[in-house]
Amino acid sequence: MIKTIGLFAHVDAGKTTFAEQLLYLTRAIAEPGRVDHRSAFLDSHEIEQERGITVFADQATFAYKDHIYHLIDTPGHVDFSPEMERTIQVMDAAIIIVSAVEGVEGHTETVWQLLKKQHVPVFFFINKTDRTGANLDEVVAQIRSLFTTDLFLLPATQVAEEWSTEQIEFVAERDSLLLEAYLERGIDEFRWRQALSMMVMERSVFPLGSGSALHHHGIEPFFAMLDGLVMTSYDPTEPFAAQVYKIRYDAAGTRMTFLKVRSGSLQVRGTISYKHNDNEYTEKVTQIRSINGKQLKQVERAAAGELCAVAGLTMAACGQGGGALSSQTAVELIPALKSKVILEPSVHPKDALKVFRMLDDEDPSLSVSWEERTQDIHLHVMGVIQLEVLERIVLERFQLKIRFGEPQILYKETIGDAVAGCGHFEPLKHYAEVHLRIEPGPRDSGIVFLNACHPDVLPVNYQHLVEQHIHEREHHGLLTGSPLTDLHITLLKGRAHNKHTHGGDFREATFRAIRQGLEQAENILLEPIYDYKIRVALDHMGRVLSDIQQAHGSFQPPEIEGDKVTVTGRVPVATFMNYSVELASFTQGKGRLSLMLGGYEPCHQSEQVIEAIGYQKQADPEYTSSSIFCAKGQGYEVPWEEAAGHMHV
Questions:
Q1: For residue range 461-471, what is the model confidence (pLDDT) as tens digits?
Q2: Helix, strand, or coil here: 602?
Q3: Tr-type G domain location, by residue (predicted)?
Q4: H-helix or E-strand containing 158?
Q5: Rg (CA), the chain
Q6: Which ranges of 52-175 does DSSP label H, i.e. alpha helix?
Q7: 337-409 falls under which CATH superfamily?
Q8: Cα separation of 481 and 486, whole Å?
Q9: Confidence (pTM)
């Protein structure tokens, strides 16, 4: 049986140390490495060793009893959480590691929600029980309060085959047939373990173990329990299907696509069919590699259930399905900041852009963009630590010395009312006209294209062009030049010319129609919002509520449990992005803060932001509100206010 297990934790909970002990237990490595000694098998990158944190989701392969395991050690720092999130889709089960000293921390709550959404079975391991200040009972109580009360407890010294009275009662309470059988005949070991396994895989029960990863205490019985409970059933006889969970470029510049084979098998020189951006691709696999830490081994075949990296796929993206799978997995963790790349004078911008396009392939959350007028590269980021790491990566991998500008809030724009926009593009020997209805859409819905144009008015191929141009890029709003979102754009009508319509004409007409519509609309600036959860001592409630109000946030009625209080609500990223430091200060590190981007809302300080950005809509080289018409063999410009009266349709 082949199983993929993921390790998740907040920074410094001991996740990588746990991984080392697990690899040592299964004889995958001769000696367990240590993070503080820079000798961990999975934290093999120099950046990770220097900082003592996991940055990349690296994997190892080992055997235990009759099973093959793929172990993925995921980043625990919030700045690298998109890397962590991309791996969740290929997990058969997850181990969440919680420190017995620090307890459940903010990032752990984010991990729990992501695993819950993907329906991944979860095992808890409470680590560092040997440390001063450890409180196992309190941490178990936190997990019950924050996550689930359905915990199947495993004492650190228990032999896997033994069943305690508490465990027997726990399982029996959830299966009446087992309870009857137990009262009549006692425990049938196989049947009980089978029932518990089903409960675990259905996420109705969550096993919990404890111990010390550093001193190898509790690891063996915990993993023996996991091995007996995690069941997979990958079928090599079914048609081939796979899921992409990572893209990497190797030292030679070869694009490697990391796959989880879900069914069937894949051979070198075999083909994979997949869809990307509505285009169909069928490409030949030129190489298959098995990955074990830094060790890469070329193989001829990958079977159902296995993880592998393949060469030959040019367009497959993270979350992409191949073969029998065609869905794109949605992501939850989206950056709320953007930054500009600052280049050395000797570096040509287009050379740097090639590098960042490769990094964008590897990490789609970067959303790398190029501004032609200023020759600038911009990207989206989670935080400043990510920028520091990116600087090192670019220098070490590509020998480019760069810096980044101060991260800025990633604003967006929308409109508050429905308008009709029209655009005409008719310089000499060119022709296209487009009419659109532009309406506000639901919050966080993006841009949705609708079509109400009859083929007799505009041929279908030109209608498809309009749709393509609407989706081909982010469009600038009028207030700050930020991306437009939350719009329903309907094609009403248009016109082409049998002789003079050429490629690009409908792009010009479509962009001008959007812009002309925005000129008539109520434009609204949107800012990113955090969904937050704060847990502090009851004595600190007043301070926390006051801070939230000052940050222009909102909160639900506080939930009080004993001497603790939990506050949830929404708050602008701009006013709360550094609050974790302040919270840690006045709670002496005992306060817990969980933040997740909760979409966009109207900006609480629009005027100040608009003034600070200073966007000049008339000077935007990529957009104009005016239309171009032709008379007497010469094109002439008509401003947006007058354009509707000149339209041909």
A1: 999 999 999 99
A2: strand
A3: 1-237
A4: none
A5: 28
A6: 81-88, 106-117, 136-146, 165-173
A7: Elongation Factor G (Translational Gtpase), domain 3 (3.30.70.870)
A8: 15
A9: 0.85
